[in-house]
Amino acid sequence: MKSRLEDYKINIRIKLSALWTAIMFCYIYGDYFELYVPKKVEELLYGQNMLDSPMKLFFTTVILVIPAVMIFLSLVLSPRLTKWTNIAVGVFFTLFTLLVGISSMTEWMTFYVFLSFLESILTTVLVVMAWKWPKMKLI
User: Whole-prediction pTM value?
Assistant: First the structure.
C-alpha cells in the first residue's frame, strides 16, 4: 500500500517572509565572501572603498535594512499593505541587485554576480507571489 506524505497549505505571508529571509542570507553571504577577494580587507582597513564617507555608509545601511525589515512586515501589515509593499520593494530590489550584479562582473567577483542574479530571481518570485495573493472565498 502506497502512502502519501502529509502536506499543508502554507500561508502567503509566511512564504513572503521566508523569501525575504533567503534574500537576506544571500546578501550576507555575498558581503562575507567579498572579504576573501584579494586586497579587499586591506582596502577596508585604509578606507579605500565605496563606503568612504559617513553619508554613503548611512545611505547603504538604509537600503540594506529594508529587506531585513520586510521579513517582519510581511507578517504583520494588513493584507493589502503587505501585498503592495512586497511588490514595490521587490521590484526595486530586483532592479537594484541586477544593476549591482552587472556592475560587478570581474573574475574575482563571479560569486557576487551569481548571488546578485539569484537574489533577483528570488525577488521576482516574491513579486509574482504577492501579485497573485490568494483571495478569500465569500459564501
Answer: 0.89
CA distance 130 to 52: 37
Q: Could you tell me the CA-to-CA distances from 127 to 15, 16, 41, 93, 109 in Å, in that order?
A: 12, 9, 35, 10, 27
- In SS3 terms, 26-81 reads as HHHHHHHHHCCCCCHHHHHHCCCCCCCCHHHHHHHHHHHHHHHHHHHHHHHCCHHH
Residue type, 131: W
- Cβ atoms of residues 134 and 13 within 8 Å: no
Domain residue extents for the chain: 12-131
3-state percent breakdown (helix, strand, coil) of the chain, nearest 5: 75, 0, 25
In contact, 16 and 130? CB cutoff 8 Å:
yes
The radius of gyration of the chain from alpha carbons, rounded to an integer in Å, stands at 18
Tens digit of each residue's pLDDT (9 = 90 or more) over 11-29: 999 999 999 999 999 999 9
